[in-house]
């Protein structure tokens, strides 16, 4: 599947005790036909009141706490199977809600953002995480500097720029910043250009996956960072390379993410080795 071009593999492990291994994720990603950004593994529920437990893996085999575009793909898969539109899921980051609307767009309640330095987490104490000391490029003329940082269950840094986000070599800076010592659990790195208070352009280098067409949690982090630095309103269209996402920071502190999800093809996969066969086209 894909969520605005964010390549997602949804693996159904309900009724089994199997887990997708990091080795399987790496093997699946090594094949050009199944290159992906995240795997969303659907497991049986562990907690009453939730439909399923969802485990998330990046293409480098690491496990992620949250994935907004992937959650929309999970909602669409289960909605097509079960004919209902509302779901409550559990992830390692907590309980999430997802709903498919009549127009096919899917909204996921991604929970509440966290801003304290130790919640993101950072390796250094910052009283104010709206602009932290971090820069890349020459010391007296940094290319990117002073990002706002936040956790949407996973760590994000939003670098604000005034000019075109495509004029920055994110493929070069992304890996350096993702692995910067400031981030003990690494981080997702985004460049944001605010066009108006309700419209932002965003590119993201994803932790464990690299450059992506879309990153839902990065869009959520950029919106809350934009709102708390008075750059944006609490609801905005976030244009990512794959298209538009709508993000809203509600009065109850929850952040909702709305966008499409698209089925591509189906197959079978061994969650231990990653060996797969294709069975059905879209
Ligand atoms: N594509 C995702 C984010 C996936 C997880 C991220 N790479 C991480 O390791 O935190 C999204 O749509 O949110």
TrEMBL record:
Keyword set includes GTP-binding: no
Active-site residues annotated for this sequence: 67, 67 (proton donor), 215 (proton acceptor)
Molecular functions (GO terms): diaminopimelate epimerase activity
One BP term from GO: lysine biosynthetic process via diaminopimelate
Pathway: Amino-acid biosynthesis; L-lysine biosynthesis via DAP pathway; DL-2,6-diaminopimelate from LL-2,6-diaminopimelate: step 1/1
Enzyme Commission number(s) from the entry: 5.1.1.7
InterPro entries documented for this protein: DAP_epimerase_AS (IPR018510), DAP_epimerase_DapF (IPR001653)
Pfam family, one: DAP_epimerase
Alphabetic keyword roster: Amino-acid biosynthesis, Cytoplasm, Isomerase, Lysine biosynthesis
Binding site for substrate: 6, 38, 58, 68-69, 154, 188, 206-207, 216-217
Protein origin, superkingdom: Bacteria
Catalytic activity: (2S,6S)-2,6-diaminopimelate = meso-2,6-diaminopimelate
Classification via HAMAP family: DAP_epimerase
Quaternary data: Homodimer.
Name of the molecule in the record: Diaminopimelate epimerase
Native species: Devosia ureilytica
């Amino acid at each position: 599947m894909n969520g605005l071009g964010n390549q997602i593999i949804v693996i159904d492990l309900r009724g089994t005790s199997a887990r997708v291994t990091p080795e399987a994720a790496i093997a699946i990603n090594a094949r050009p036909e199944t290159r992906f950004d995240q795997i969303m593994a659907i497991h049986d529920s562990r907690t009453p009141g939730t439909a399923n437990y969802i485990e998330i893996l990046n293409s480098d085999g690491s496990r992620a706490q949250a994935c907004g575009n992937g959650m929309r793909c999970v909602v669409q898969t289960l909605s097509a199977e079960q004919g209902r539109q509302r779901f409550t899921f559990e992830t390692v980051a907590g309980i999430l809600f997802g709903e498919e609307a009549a127009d096919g767009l899917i909204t996921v309640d991604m929970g509440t953002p966290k801003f304290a330095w130790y919640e993101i987490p950072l390796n250094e104490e910052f009283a104010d995480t709206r602009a932290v000391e971090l820069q890349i490029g020459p010391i007296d003329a940094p290319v990117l500097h002073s990002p706002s940082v936040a956790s949407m269950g996973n760590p994000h840094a939003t670098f604000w720029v005034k000019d075109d986000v495509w004029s920055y070599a994110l493929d070069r800076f992304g890996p350096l910043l993702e692995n910067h010592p400031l981030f003990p659990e690494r981080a997702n790195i985004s460049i944001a250009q605010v066009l108006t208070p309700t419209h932002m352009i965003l590119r993201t280098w994803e932790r464990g996956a690299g450059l992506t067409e879309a990153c839902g949690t990065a869009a959520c982090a950029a919106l809350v960072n934009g709102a708390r630095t008075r750059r944006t309103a609490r609801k905005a269209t976030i244009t990512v390379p794959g298209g538009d996402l709508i993000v809203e920071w509600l009065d109850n502190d929850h952040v909702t993410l709305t966008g499409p999800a698209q089925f591509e093809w189906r197959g079978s996969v061994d969650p231990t080795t990653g060996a797969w066969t294709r069975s059905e086209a879209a």
